[in-house]
Amino acid sequence: MKHYLSLRMRVFMIFFGVVILIIGIFFVANRFFWGNTYIRENRNALLKTYEELAAMVADSGTTEEMLQDKVKSARLQNITFALEGNREWDFPTFTQRTVAPYEQEFLRERLMADFLIPNSEGVKILQETEDYTLQRVELASGDSYLEIYGYMPDASGNEKKFILSLPLHNIMLASKFSNRTFVWLSLILVIATALIVNFLTERITEPIYQLTEISKSMSHLDFSQRYTGDKHDEIGVLGNNMNEMSSQLERAFLQLQMANEKLQQDIKEKEEVDAMRKDFISNVSHELKTPIALIQGYAEGLKEIASDDPESAAYYCDVISDEADKMNRMVRKLTTLNQLEFGEDGLTIEPFDVMDMIRSLVRGSKKMQEEHHAKVTVDGPESMMVLGDAFKIEEVVNNYYSNAMNHLEDPYEIVFRLDDLGPNIRISVKNTGENIPEEELSKIWIKFHKVDKARTRAYGGSGIGLAIVKAIMDAHGHEFGVYNEPDGVVFWFELQKAPEEA
Q1: DSSP state letters, 265-304
Q2: Which of 242, 382, 430, 502 qualifies as a cystine partner to 490, CB 3.0-4.6 A?
Q3: Topology adopted by domain 221-344
Q4: Are 53 and 81 in contact (CB under 8 A)?
């Protein structure tokens, strides 16, 4: 997986880097340039003061009070001035009144040193002219000064020694203090900047991170997340657009899913229809093959014995008629089932007495009961009015009854039972005999499906009767089913009770 710096980290690094760069520039300037700038400014101030004082000393109109004021003004700039008096190395009155005694002694010593021992150790000459020398002095004590010394002509034309001194010690101390203060302030500023930039980048990138998570969810087809920011800037507009796009994609995706599910269902139904068609053709072919073969065989035999053996000819005719009747019944059932499955045979819903229908069916089947040694009982009220298509419900009851007869075993009992379920009633038909395997219970409603093919063939079954039951009950919209009991099998269906007035 490719690693990359997050937008938040990049914005933080840019902001923080800019602050560090600015602090670094100020630090370098303070460390290497501002000290020299201070010295250059003081050097210019010192030269300017020298020019002003030289002009005043050379002017015959300058009084001692005027010089005194100028010296005091220079003193405010930390510049001390000494001018040779009447005696060599002595100072005039105005100088003595503006300079402290220890400063007078210092200036006298510096003036003597400059004239008697020029270019001594610790002295760096910065500028030299015919009238003065500008130099920087580093004393053994560690003190540093800017000095101008030389000869200054007075109004009489006499050359008098002078010295102007400006201490740099305070400036250097101020510079060092400034550097230390700047370092501490820089550290505080860096920490404060880190916290502020971290807070700001989090505020700036948090909605972008939210949009990133939304887009990531959308890439995994999850459109449930929404942008929740309340800003009205470009990010807010982007978030609202993302929400709109997510909603539209969600709707489109749901529609696509529904269309895909419908397509899958249609494909499945088509496959089922194709499979049913193939099964139908195969089953019909199989069901018709046997009677057609019998009819063909007995018809050929009938030709040979028609004149010689009238009794055999009659038997052959009976077999042909019986097989033709089976084929006719199967075709009728297929036609009925086809009409029911495709909704071509509509229901006629009306009240009718289902108990009367069952008892009539039992009374009309005495011969079949005797042939199967069946004991048929009806457990229910004398009358029960229900709503349904009487003709088709009779088909259901008849199919259940025929099925029970054909699978009847000792003790050869068939029981019709009615149970009251409130708004509905349940009709069940139980026969004693062998249970249906559990895995076959859900399959017996499929047309042409036979649990015991040999037995079904023996009584002439086609495997269509229960499929017709299913189609009729589905059309009525009522429940039906089958279950095993220890001594037999129970088939059932439900119908709605008819209103009292019916």
Answers
A1: HHHHHHHHHHHHHHHHHHHHHHHHHHHHHHHHHHHHHHHH
A2: 430
A3: Helix Hairpins (1.10.287)
A4: yes
181, 208, 236, 380 from 6: Cα distances, Å: 36, 11, 20, 81
Whole-number Å distance between alpha carbons of 268 and 261: 10
The dihedrals phi and psi of 221, each to the nearest 5 degrees, come to: 65, 30
CA distance 251 to 223: 9
Residue pair 390/352 in contact (Cβ under 8 Å)? The answer is yes
Full-model pTM: 0.42
* Residue partners of 423: CB distance under 8 A and separation at least 6: 496, 497
Rounded CA separation 41/31 (Å) = 17
Query: Does pLDDT of 167 surpass 50?
Result: yes
CA angle 367, 371, 374 (to 5 degrees): 90
Token pair in block for residue 309: 């053996």
Taking only the tens place, the pLDDT of each residue in 359-396 is: 999 999 998 899 889 999 999 999 999 999 998 899 89
List the structure tokens of 242. Answer: 């993302």
* pLDDT bracket for residue 282 (50, 70, 90): low
- How many residues are present in the chain? 502
User: Is CATH 1.10.10.10 the right assignment for the domain spanning 346-497?
Assistant: no
∠ CA(427), CA(433), CA(439), 5° rounding?
A: 80
Nearest to 492 by CA among 384, 408, 422, 401: 401
CA quadruple 120, 121, 127, 132: dihedral positive or negative? Answer: negative
| Six-digit token string for 277 | 């068609």
Residue type, position 56, single letter? M
Sorting pLDDT into bands at 50, 70 and 90, what band is 64? confident
Residue 153: asked if its preceding bond is cis (omega within 30°), the reply is no
* Cα–Cα distance for residue pair 296/234, rounded to 1 Å: 89
